[in-house]
Amino acid sequence: MDQKRESPAVLVREVVAAVRAEPGERMPALAELLAAADVAAAEVDDVLAAVRESQQQTARLRRRTVELEALFSTARELVRLQDVTDVLRRLVERAHELMGTDVTYLSEVDNPRGDLRVRYSAGTVTPEFRDLVVPAGFGLASLVADSREPVWVRQYERMADAPHDPAIDGAVAREGLVSFLGVPLAVGDEVLGALFACNRFAHDFTPDQVLLLSAFADHAAAVLHSARVLAESAAARSRAEQAYGALERHLAATQVVSGIHEELTAAVVSGATLLDLVTTVSDRLGRRVQAVDDRGRALGAGVDDRAGLPRRRLLTDALRESRSSGHAVEVVDGDRGWLVVAILGADRVLGGMVADDPASIGSEPFDDVARPTLERAAQVAALVSFQREAVSAIRAERRARLLGALLDGAATASDLVVESAAPGGAGAPPAGRARAGARGAAADAVGDDGLVAMREHGLVVAWTVADAERPTERVRRALAERWDDPEVTAVVGPAVTDAPSLRASVERAGRDLRFLAPLGVRGATVRSDAFAPYHVLTSGEPEAAARFVDEVLGQVRDWDERRGTALIDTLGAYFDSGESRLAAATALRVHTNTVQQRLDRIWTLLDGDPADAEFRFRLHAAVRLERLRRELLR
Predict the structure, then answer these.
(1) Judging by beta carbons within 10 Å of its beta carbon (0-12, 13-18, 19+), is residue 475 exposed, middle or buried?
(2) Does residue 191 have a pLDDT over 80?
(3) DSSP annotation string for 279-300
């Protein structure tokens, strides 16, 4: 009786246990109990069918609970969104666990073309697949991105709906993937990427799997979109903060620069020079500032021409760039840096200011104060230069008119003494071809040591110094550098004491220049006295001297140039020694027979009779004139 009363209870407990079990579990035991309880076969089948249906519904509810928990976890992480990388990685891992596929990965749009790059993956075994880039328009990814709908294939290699890429197919084959399910990561009309679930065997994905992966994809899209919005917001906030900070710095710098500019302007009003301005800027900026001319040479008494400056080529290039841009230019030479700004005149660079970069010695680099201060200082320096040039131009014009009147006979030597710093002097004209701005440039170079005037044949400088050769060479070099013309030539006349002598010296210097040009003597400063005797040998025609030498010594000179011999030097030494072969050999440091052989060759080349006194005189003159020409050209 007790066993019969317990049987229904046991049966009920077994039915309940079977209903709660996983699909297929406890079913044999339940069938045995039902048979033992004499339940009809048809009823047993109905009970077992009901239990199986209940098991499947229970399993589906459990799976749905797990899926919802995973999605809720992802949603909670999305709300907090501390680390986008960590959130997306966990999202892919959860999708991988719930989908039960071999591989799950998330691809993100990598560039404006729409290429997709694998960012996060689970279940992959090949490193190349973890960083795979799928070009836009290829593979399953293009179908997902273009359709913005879930897409799956049972066997990837047989897919014909989108073009295959050999590199992608190779990576898929090495990973061993066969079936793919892809769902888009979309926000509005924009596709941010795609989420994929894959198996290494042929597989038909169920609607539940599509829905589940799509839910994860929606969360991933929300994560990416939120991260982008937050990044853009942070960037905008950062830009706003930077702009505000820059505005504050700019206002502060503007006040400082304006103060320095007022100080520089006051200095100019009080008669400050360019070097005074440089000193003021250097003190206010707390760094070394130097003034240079348009050739990059340091200005100021006792200044080392290259001390603390970049290389000349870098400096002149920076001055040209600053002239073009109107702003200061940074120069780097090795481990040092400078800020260079040009001082601009009406039509050229007057010079520049060069400030050391403190960053090269461990301080702050050029800031919002140094650059505008240097640029404004250059503008003020240009005004100072304009003022100085205007005063110098007026003075030079007055002195030029005086010298011109003196050369024209309309003034006396006493007028010259009153204007000049010292009486007397030497005439040294012309210092080159007449060009625009030549007189002003020469007057700047001459200073108070002489007067400068422009004549039809060039510049005339009336020096008030005892020896005019060295200052004339200095002026000639200054003009040659300014015009970048190495052929600028100058002649220094003899010292004079009165106006007629000065006029005669100027005329003689003009003839000397015309005399030198045919001889090929250019780019030098020579004394008129050095070749004065040879004027009497030629006519007033400038080419006569060169033609005279060619006619007398042309064949001998050609022989020397072709053979590399020294026949003209030998002939000069022979004449210098009183036509003594022994003395000539000693002077030339050769054997007497060598001198005789050279003389024999010379006599055969000369178109004249060496015994003729007239021809020997011409030969003497031609040899000495050729030797003088060579000396001047050295």
Answers:
(1) buried
(2) yes
(3) HHHHHHHTS-EEEEETTS-B-S
Radius of gyration of the CA atoms of the chain, in A: 51
Asked if the structure places residue 74 within a domain, the reply is: no
Check if the beta carbon of residue 407 is closer than 8 Å to that of residue 451.
no
- What are the tens digits of pLDDT across the range 237-252? 777 777 777 767 666 6
How many other C-beta atoms are found inside a 10 Å radius of the C-beta of residue 463? Answer: 26
Q: Name the one residue in this structure whose structure tokens are 């006396």.
A: 412
Q: What is the mean pLDDT of the chain?
A: 76
Task: With beta carbons less than 8 A apart as the criterion, state whether 550 and 536 touch.
Answer: no
Whole-angstrom distance, CA of residue 285 vs CA of residue 508: 55
Query: With contact defined as beta carbons under 8 Å apart, do 381 and 373 qualify?
Result: no
CA dihedral (236, 239, 244, 245) in degrees, to 10, reads: 140
Are residues 226 and 332 part of one domain? no
> Tokens 């005439």, residue?
427
Where do the DSSP E strands lie in 321-390? 329-333, 336-344, 349-356
> Is residue 195 within 8 Å of 152, Cβ to Cβ?
no
Half-sphere exposure of 274 (CA within 13 A, CB side): 25
Per-residue tokens: 288: 């070394």
What's the number of domains the chain is made of?
Answer: 5
Q: Which domain holds residue 136?
A: 85-233
- What residues pair up with 451 in beta bridges, in sequence order? 462
Tokens of 588: 């030339």
